[in-house]
Structure formats: structure tokens, C-alpha cells
Amino acid sequence: MHQQGEITISAIEKNLAKKLRNLFAPLKKLHIPALTSIEMALYEAVENGIEHGCLEIGFQLKRMLIEYKYYDKELRRRQGNPRFIKRNVVVSYIYTEDSIQFDVKDEGKGFDWKERFQNDEDNPTPTLNVSGSGLTIITTVFDSITFNKVGNEIKMIKYCKLPEEL
């Protein structure tokens, strides 16, 4: 079995969960035990790409906006801003006999992922200075994650045995 493709998700996407669900349609009938967790972790990666990458809402700013109950208003404001409105997140996927792989790349400036992770670049693990739970969920669910140098692309791999035909 080998299936691959990609989807582009706008920074102003209103129904992210539905758009991502379509990626998992071929896998649903296989009854993969961790599939719900994989879906949740991919959602977190894409949401991070939209919020922190495309819309440039940094970790500290997001924390402050949530604390002052201004986050939703600022999110809508940025989604209407011509500076951000045309930005996208591209999700590439590959399903093989032994793995499920996703590559999520946003059109933002990236982030210093080395600052937020321990020093093992081949399999980073979040340290306690991670602001949100998204990266923790991602590293817990996937067996391998890597970032590009800039920090606007994450590759996630879950190793599992899949049948030859979908």
C-alpha cells in the first residue's frame, strides 16, 4: 500500500476539523488503535501553523490574549488583515505499509524550535518551557518528529503496520 497527497488550508479556514477528516477517510476502515490520537495531533500541528505561523500570534502573545479574554477577537482581526489573509498551511501525507507520515508547512516566519526542545534533533522532546499543549500532544503521539531549520515545517511519522491495500 502506498498513498500520498497534499491539501492546502487557508489561514482563514472556518472548518479545519472537517477539512482534516478527509485525510483520514482511507484509514478509518482499518481500525488503527491510535488513529483518533493521530487526528488530534495533526489538528494541533495545523492549528499551530495557522495561529503561530500564518497569523503570527506568538506563544507569549497568545497566552496574554487568552488571559485577557481577547484571543478570539484578535484571531478574527488577523484573519481579516490583508497581510495574513492569503497565507496557507500545506499538509502533505504519505501512507505506507509501515507508517503514516505528515508534513505540515506554514507560510510564516517559523520559530526557534531548538529553544523549546531538548537537544536531540532526531527526536525532539518538549521541555517545560513549551507554552501550549500542542507540541506536547504531537511528540506524545508520533514516533518521530523533525523541524526544518527555519521552524515553519514539521514532519511527523507514526510507525504502524497497515495492510497492502486500502
Please sum up the structure shown.
The protein has 166 residues and is an alpha+beta fold.
Biggest beta sheet summary: 5 strands, antiparallel
Strand content: 15-25%
CATH architecture: 2-Layer Sandwich
| Low-pLDDT stretches | none
The CATH superfamily label reads: Histidine kinase-like ATPase, C-terminal domain
Oligomer: single chain
| Number of beta strands | 5
Level of helix content? Answer: 25-40%
The number of distinct structural domains comes to 1
Which strand order does the major sheet show? 1-2-3-5-4
Write down the CATH class: Alpha Beta
* Sheet/helix structural class: alpha+beta
What is the topological layout?
Layout: E1 2-10, H1 16-28, H2 35-54, H3 59-67, H4 71-79, E2 88-96, E3 99-106, H5 113-116, H6 134-141, E4 144-147, E5 153-159
Antiparallel strand pairs: 1-2, 2-3, 3-5, 4-5
Task: Report on the architecture of this protein.
This protein is of the alpha+beta class and 166 residues long. The protein is 38% helix and 22% strand. Strand 2 and strand 3 (99-106) form a beta hairpin. The N and C termini lie close together (7 Å). The model has no long low-confidence stretch (mean pLDDT 86).
Entry keywords:
alpha+beta, 5-stranded antiparallel beta sheet, 166 residues, 5 strands, Heat Shock Protein 90, globular
